[in-house]
MBL fold metallo-hydrolase (Sporosarcina soli), 212 residues
Amino acid sequence: MLTIHTYPLGPIQTNCYIVNDDEGNCLIFDPGDEAERIIRHIDEKELNPVAILLTHAHFDHIGAVDGVRDQFSIPVYIHEEEREWLLNPELNGSAKYAGLPNIQNREADFNLRQEGKMTIGSFEFEVRHTPGHSPGSVSYIFEASGFAVVGDTLFKQSVGRTDLQGGNTTVLLSSIHDKLLTLDDETIIYPGHGPATTVEDEKDANPFLNGF
């Protein structure tokens, strides 16, 4: 059985998710800021991190990557379309906002190139490429546990913005329709910001998805 913990972090309150199994192994999704808080939670819960998985590389999702990676000596995974974004403040957007530090991480340890089933330690899940908000956005589907971590692709009664680097509204809506709304209606959607929702609720009530 998997347990998921949600931590809104940083000035934009980006959701970092920590998913652990019954043995205390855990995956860390989108450590966007406040590395010390993430590390403290993991230490207090006596968890054993095995990897950092990124839904995409906008600055608010990657700000604590190196701090957490170095603390636990674990690999980082990102889609190959955004492998350079981790290193480049112009691409990840941190250079565009006054008052925010430029985010420059080291390269990811693994670049995701294909969709499909993936196993890391005891964790089995599916990677789906869901571009539109950004070209390398991916969603991580835990079908057996009934949830998906989708980054900024889909929100409760909203969708990701497409006015940033590489954004495309048509591509985004296609990703949502083809890759997320095809999941079981009961699937819990964990977005990059705000509360969780379900596939069924978004089909019924999301005003951006009328016609799907």
